[in-house]
UniProtKB/TrEMBL annotation:
InterPro entries: Bact_Chemotaxis_MeTrfase, CheR_C, CheR_MeTrfase, SAM-dependent_MTases_sf. Its EC number is 2.1.1.80. It comes from Sphingobium scionense. Residues 252-274 are annotated as: Disordered. SUPFAM superfamilies: Chemotaxis receptor methyltransferase CheR, N-terminal domain (SSF47757), S-adenosyl-L-methionine-dependent methyltransferases (SSF53335). One of its GO terms (molecular function) is protein-glutamate O-methyltransferase activity. The lineage of its organism: Bacteria, Pseudomonadati, Pseudomonadota, Alphaproteobacteria, Sphingomonadales. It is an enzyme of class 2 (transferase). This is Chemotaxis protein methyltransferase CheR. Residues 1-254 form the CheR-type methyltransferase domain. One of its GO terms (biological process) is methylation. Keywords: Methyltransferase, Transferase.
Length: 274
């Protein structure tokens, strides 16, 4: 089971996560009429049932997310990073990629901030791509439907009332928010969806589950879809130090990363000297 997860997603199921495997797979056993984990493992080995494979992977993936997760990151984005990009982009096109977006709260949090500042971004084309390997996570993200518990985790009440509407016991993001985001199922190790370069790339709390070799592969992908003024944001427990030669700590925005190049290296040298 852990081999299937790693082969399909690159994620290594640590001992800390392995204990929940049986609980996570109970719905899969029920839906496919299987008695236990051993029978499931046998069926996976004997057949090429793509639906069963996908259901197992979806069940084992960690789709933990919340609105405005790590609020200081969103403050950094909207108070420092985006104003700098806005000053530099004469074509008025802003491209953002949320890689490993899970059920979409990160992308919706970005869209909410843009909608709340609509006058500031008048005349701009804002493209938000959000990708994840989990088909179940992308289906939920695309629907824009979140439970009461989901919206209570990080979503300000004013934004809930303004940008969401009741959907039974749940809440659905309004059409304006949903139209801003292109949700796609994609694999970071065989990526098909990203095109061109993005101004802002978020790959937060994704690399934690990968081997060093897999992390290097993801950094190479992110580098291919960035330019010399792009900004990369990782999770709090993630870093590029010792992981990639493509990115360096950003000389201007603390906690973010820039493509390695003369300007970034010079800025970092100046910061170290200071």
């Amino acid at each position: 089971m852990t081999g299937l997860l790693e082969a399909r997603t690159g994620q290594v199921l640590s001992e800390g996560r392995a204990w929940r495997m049986e609980t996570a797979l109970k719905p899969v056993l029920r839906d496919h009429g299987l008695q236990d984990i051993d029978e499931l493992a046998g069926k996976l080995l004997r057949s090429r049932n793509s639906r069963l494979d996908e259901d197992v992977v979806n069940a084992l993936l960690n789709n933990e997310s919340s609105f405005f997760r790590d609020l200081q990151i969103f403050d950094l984005i909207h108070r420092q990073i985006l104003p700098r990009i806005q000053d530099e982009r004469g074509d008025r096109v802003l491209r953002i990629w949320s890689a490993g977006c899970s059920t979409g709260q990160e992308a919706y949090s970005l869209a909410i901030r843009f909608c709340n500042e609509a006058a500031r971004w008048a005349g701009w084309r804002i493209e938000i791509l959000a990708t994840d390997i989990s088909s179940a996570a992308i289906d939920q993200a695309r629907s824009g439907v979140f439970s009461q518990m989901d919206v209570q985790r990080g979503l300000p009440i004013g934004d809930l009332i303004k940008w969401f509407e009741p959907a039974g016991d749940d809440w659905r993001a309004n059409p304006e928010l949903r139209r801003m985001i292109d949700f796609r199922q994609d694999n970071l190790f065989a990526a098909r969806v990203p095109t061109g370069a993005y101004d802002l790339l978020l790959c937060r709390n994704v690399l934690l589950y990968f081997s060093p070799e897999r992390r290097q592969s993801v950094f190479d992908l992110l580098a291919r879809h960035s330019h010399d003024r792009s900004v990369l944001l990782l999770g709090a427990g993630e870093a590029v130090i010792g992981q990639s030669e493509e990115f360096v700590p950003h000389p201007e925005f603390r906690g973010s990363y820039a493509r390695r190049g003369p300007s970034a290296d010079a800025g970092n040298s100046a910061r170290r000297a200071g």
